[in-house]
Design goal:
This protein is of the alpha/beta class. The protein folds into 2 domains: 2-44, LysM domain (Membrane-bound Lytic Murein Transglycosylase D, Chain A, Roll), CATH 3.10.350.10; 51-163, L,D-transpeptidase catalytic domain-like (Beta Barrel), CATH 2.40.440. The chain is 15% helix and 34% strand. The chain is built from 3 helices and 12 strands, in the order βααββββββββββαβ. The chain has helices at 11-17, 22-29, 144-153, and strands spanning 2-4, 42-44, 56-61, 66-71, 74-80, 83-84, 93-102, 111-115, 121-123, 134-136, 140-141, 159-163. The strands form 3 sheets. It has an 8-stranded mixed β-sheet with strand order 5-4-3-12-7-8-9-11, with helices on one face. It has a two-stranded antiparallel ribbon with strand order 1-2. It is globular and about 50 Å long. The active site is at residues 123, 139. InterPro entries: LD-transpeptidase (IPR050979), LD_TPept_cat_dom (IPR005490), LysM (IPR018392), LysM_dom_sf (IPR036779), Transpep_catalytic_dom (IPR038063). Keywords: Cell shape, Cell wall biogenesis/degradation, Glycosyltransferase, Hydrolase, Peptidoglycan synthesis, Transferase. Pfam families: LysM (PF01476), YkuD (PF03734). Residues 56-163 form the L,D-TPase catalytic domain.
């Protein structure tokens, strides 16, 4: 996939967001000096499939507290979610799923889907009463059965659009 460098990003921060190494990014992009990247530069992320080749898109509405799975542009499924609270809001923007971990344990429930923003993800919960509320530390919480279903459908590289 291609990442477009934004203001205040470094090769280190990009590598962290996509859970890859700077070495991989340097090699895949023929970059000799990691300090010489610029805003608008295209960085190839070799570990993530091109989201444009994936028929699914996840659309998240923070105000409605709903995650909508689109397949070929059509609504396939809608799930209730919990989102970040006022002090630790869920970041808006466009991301991709970069990896996953079944049974991460604790507050993360039955599945963790990492987003291309380090420390953020879509995950299950050990507190199902939190669904429908703004109570997380910025992640998207789902019922465990829902996140397991979602993770069985969407591959890594799936685009995730988070709107206010």
């Amino acid at each position: 996939m291609i990442h477009i460098v934004k203001s205040n990003e470094t090769l280190t921060s990009i590598a962290l967001d996509y859970r890859t190494s700077i070495t991989n990014l340097l090699a895949a992009n023929n970059i000799t000096n990691p300090n010489k990247i610029y805003i608008g530069q295209e960085i190839f992320i070799p570990t993530i499939p091109d989201p444009n080749t994936i028929p699914f898109i996840i659309s998240i509405s923070l105000t409605q507290k709903r995650l909508t799975l689109l397949s070929e542009g059509q609504v396939s499924k809608v799930y209730p979610i919990a989102v970040g609270n006022i002090a630790t809001s869920t970041p808006t923007g466009e991301y991709v799923i970069v990896n996953r971990q079944p049974n991460p344990g604790g507050v993360f429930g039955a599945m963790w889907l990492s987003l291309s923003k380090v420390h953020y993800g879509i995950h299950g919960t050990n507190n199902p009463n939190s669904i429908g509320k703004a109570v997380s530390l910025g992640c998207i919480r789902m019922h465990n059965k829902d996140v397991l279903e979602l993770s069985s459908i969407v591959p890594n590289g799936t685009k995730v659009i988070i709107s206010p």
